[in-house]
């Protein structure tokens, strides 16, 4: 498995030499400055590759795109989509011609990953990302004032949400909005409350079935080009894997993944196995999902969460939390061995330590929420130990 690291480009507070010190060699990045729906030119791709490879002694290379964003119009199924699909296909061609052939994307409407707390305290002074069910409900029901939101909450969560809202200052409310928007580290637009209401209005009438149809159309439009160019597309699960703000979510469980991988059958149509996103779903058996869908996994995000009965969850240690990470990595190593035995040239599965606790040395560095240096380095070291141990015990290739 190829040890990788998400890097947000030249403006990232974490430097490429520091990334090499973590043990990672694959760089997971994107051209965040290119507006959604526009073409990633070979010149821009090459410029990023030259930055990554400027110091040959580091041995770093751009191995995964995260993400090549899907324009909101595609998810809405609105307007003239032909130019948008054509631009996406051209971006895939340009990436392939530059040697970057693993492309992660997501199909989450309006917002990306969602948390309500970016610095939940941990013993010893570290902090973690956290999703508090009552704070989410307070935002949805009382700040956003979405019709029907209160009916979606349990009486207990709704009571706590009312209490939070009653005690919250304007700065508390501003912080909560900023925290919810923080899940868009490379997004081209963020929303205030009226702007978010406006986006939600655009999704009125778009059910999960309709959104699935829009995803199917997207796959039909781009997968043939990806397959012809040797590109491996890998959709990222919803985070958390549940409807938010009345928006449908269609990449949340094994049934969804089955639909996606069979909608347009192709080796180019795969998934990003995000154990943290899937792990936040109470009904998801993540090791079973990893074993079942291993042939479709082109990229892995490995992290863990600890869930609570009301739907809240905390990002846990990479080897802690509710998901058996050893079992997950065992499935991925077995799949690698199968691919290698079958003669696949690109048999290694790139993975990265997804998110991490902000720990000693991270404070004040202005890294993206969830993406500190020390916390992710700890996670990568733990995952690397599991990988080497399983490979040695099972006589599997790394």
Structure description:
The protein is 42% helix and 15% strand. By secondary structure, it is of the alpha/beta class. It folds into 2 domains: 2-114 and 200-394, Alpha-Beta Barrel (TIM Barrel), CATH 3.20.20.150; 118-199, no CATH class. Helix 5 packs across helix 6 (155-167) and helix 12 (286-293) runs parallel beside helix 13.
Q: Please tell me the total number of domains.
A: 2
Total number of helical segments?
14
Low-confidence stretches: none
Q: Which CATH class of the largest domain is shown?
A: Alpha Beta
| Quantity of strands, as a count | 12
Question: Percent range for helical residues?
Answer: 40-55%
Alpha-beta classification:
alpha/beta
CATH third-level topology of the largest domain: TIM Barrel
Q: Write out the strand line-up for the largest beta sheet, numbering strands in chain order.
A: 1-2-3-4-7-8-9-12
Shape: globular
What's the architecture of the largest domain in CATH terms? Alpha-Beta Barrel
Percent strand: 5-15%
Largest sheet: 8 strands, parallel, barrel
Order of secondary-structure elements: EHEHEHHEEEHHHHHEHEHHEEEHEH
Average pLDDT over all residues: 96
CATH superfamily of the largest domain: Divalent-metal-dependent TIM barrel enzymes
Q: What's the quick description here?
A:
By secondary structure, the chain is α/β, with parallel strands linked by helices. It contains 14 helices and twelve strands.
List the SSEs and their pairings.
Elements lengths: L1 E5 L9 H7 L3 E4 L12 H11 L8 E6 L5 H5 L5 H16 L4 E5 L10 E5 L5 E5 L1 H11 L11 H13 L2 H12 L11 H10 L5 H22 L2 E5 L17 H10 L5 E6 H5 L6 H8 L3 E6 L1 E4 L5 E4 L8 H17 L8 E4 L19 H22 L4
Helix pairs in contact: 4-9, 5-6, 12-13, 13-14
């Amino acid at each position: 498995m190829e040890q990788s690291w998400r890097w947000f480009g030249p403006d990232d507070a974490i430097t490429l030499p520091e990334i090499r010190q973590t043990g990672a060699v694959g760089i997971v990045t994107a051209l965040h400055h290119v507006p959604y729906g526009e073409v990633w030119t070979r010149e821009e791709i090459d410029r990023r590759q030259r930055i990554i490879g400027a110091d040959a002694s580091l041995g770093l290379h751009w191995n995964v795109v995260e993400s090549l964003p899907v324009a909101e119009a595609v998810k809405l199924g609105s307007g003239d989509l032909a130019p948008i699909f054509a631009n996406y296909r051209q971006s895939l061609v340009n990436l392939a011609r530059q040697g970057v052939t693993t492309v992660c994307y997501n199909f989450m409407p309006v917002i990306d990953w969602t948390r309500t707390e970016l610095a939940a305290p941990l013993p010893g002074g570290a902090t973690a990302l956290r999703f508090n069910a009552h704070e989410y409900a307070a935002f949805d029901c009382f700040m956003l004032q979405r019709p029907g939101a209160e009916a979606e909450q349990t009486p207990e969560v709704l009571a706590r949400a009312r209490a939070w809202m009653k005690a919250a200052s304007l700065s508390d409310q501003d912080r909560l909005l900023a925290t919810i928007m923080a899940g868009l580290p490379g997004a081209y637009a963020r929303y205030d409350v009226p702007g978010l209401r406006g986006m939600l209005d655009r999704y009125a009438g778009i059910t999960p079935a309709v959104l699935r149809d829009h995803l199917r159309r997207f796959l039909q439009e781009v997968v043939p080009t990806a397959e012809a160019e040797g590109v491996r597309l890998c959709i990222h699960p919803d985070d958390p894997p549940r409807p938010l703000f009345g928006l449908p979510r269609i990449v949340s469980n094994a049934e969804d993944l089955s639909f996606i991988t069979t909608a347009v059958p192709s080796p180019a149509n795969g998934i990003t196995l995000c154990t943290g996103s899937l792990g936040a779903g109470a009904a998801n058996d993540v090791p079973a999902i990893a074993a079942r869908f291993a042939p479709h996994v082109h990229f892995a995000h490995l992290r863990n969460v600890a869930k609570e009965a009301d739907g809240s969850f905390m990002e846990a240690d990479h080897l802690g939390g509710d998901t058996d990470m050893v079992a997950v990595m065992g499935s991925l190593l077995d799949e690698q061995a199968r691919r290698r035995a079958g003669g696949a040239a690109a048999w290694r599965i790139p993975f990265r330590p997804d998110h991490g606790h902000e720990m000693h040395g991270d404070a004040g560095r202005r890294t993206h929420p969830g993406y500190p240096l020390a916390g992710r380095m700890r996670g990568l070291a733990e995952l690397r130990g599991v990988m080497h141990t399983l490979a040695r015990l099972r006589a599997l290739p790394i």
